[in-house]
Amino acid sequence: MSLLTHGLLRTTANLAYAARGPVRLPVLMYHRVLDRSDPLQPGVPDAALADLQFKLLSDLFRVVPMETAIDELHNGRLKPRTLCITFDDGYRDNHDVALPLLRRHGLTATFFVASGFLGQGRMFNDTVLEAVRRLPDGPLDLADWGIEPLQLGDAASRVRAISVITRGIKHNEPHKRQAATEALAALVACPLPEDVMMTPEQVTTLSREGMSIGGHTVNHPILSTVDDATARREIVENRAALTALTGTAPMTFAYPNGKPGADYGPRHAAIVREAGYSSAVSTSYGVGDRDTDRYEYPRVALSKTTYTKVFLQLMRASSYVRHGQC
Prior knowledge:
About 45% of the residues lie in helices and about 15% in strands. It has helices at about 5-20, 45-60, 65-75, 90-105, 125-135, 155-170, 175-185, 200-210, 230-245, 265-275, 305-315, and strands spanning about 25, 25-30, 60-65, 80-90, 110-115, 140, 150, 210-215, 250-255, 280-285, 290, 295-300. Helix 5 (about 125-135) runs antiparallel to helix 6 (about 155-170), helix 5 runs parallel beside helix 7 and helix 9 packs parallel to helix 10 (about 265-275).
């Protein structure tokens, strides 16, 4: 990119932020950064795309940890062109792939970690992904789960199957969801990978490298599917585990799955606050401002693949407040 183009984009960003009224805080949402693209995960960035996106963020924005930005926003001290980078769940590639890229560009990020998976196992959606990847071509009958008949063959059919199965069991009670994924895994002739998530030591490394660690429950249940006692235990024990790992109590939390009103509600936000967190994020698309509820902060998932298009997506997203849709 030429110096002229870079200068024009910086000037455009300055003018846009100056003209739009109340200071707003874009919070970017990632889950994984793959070493190389995966045809069964078409929406997940690979290292090359993340490198491009991180370069733009480093060039044109001030990137700070989530808890820092929220405090600055609500105290009236947030500088223009400030944003946050967040990662959900605790995938191993956060450490192996994303961390070196963040270092390269001098960026920091907040990693929301589900502590129960550290060093072992997979979340239910990854069991679905890895099982469907390995199943033979042909029909897949999951009628007992209330799922339509599926036909496996090329990558497109498998992407569709992964989506249909995941949607079909996501909101089941945790033990029913677990039973369903175990039954699916049993259809596969070979073992599924057990190294999908970070180890405790890798979370410690992230913290030591200046990254912020946030809470994300122990076992990643959708909070609306469990009773309040279980929800409280998941939230409180996760915070205690992460505090023990890093020596610092996490101050910001991400609701699993994160859709307001469907995946969590006001009572869960109250538990998060009572547990000691100072803010929390959802998966609603939008950009918040000083009036946004600290415990229901929206986020933006970048989807563009060129420097200029990523910039334009950020500028467009920043014109939406709270739960605006883009």
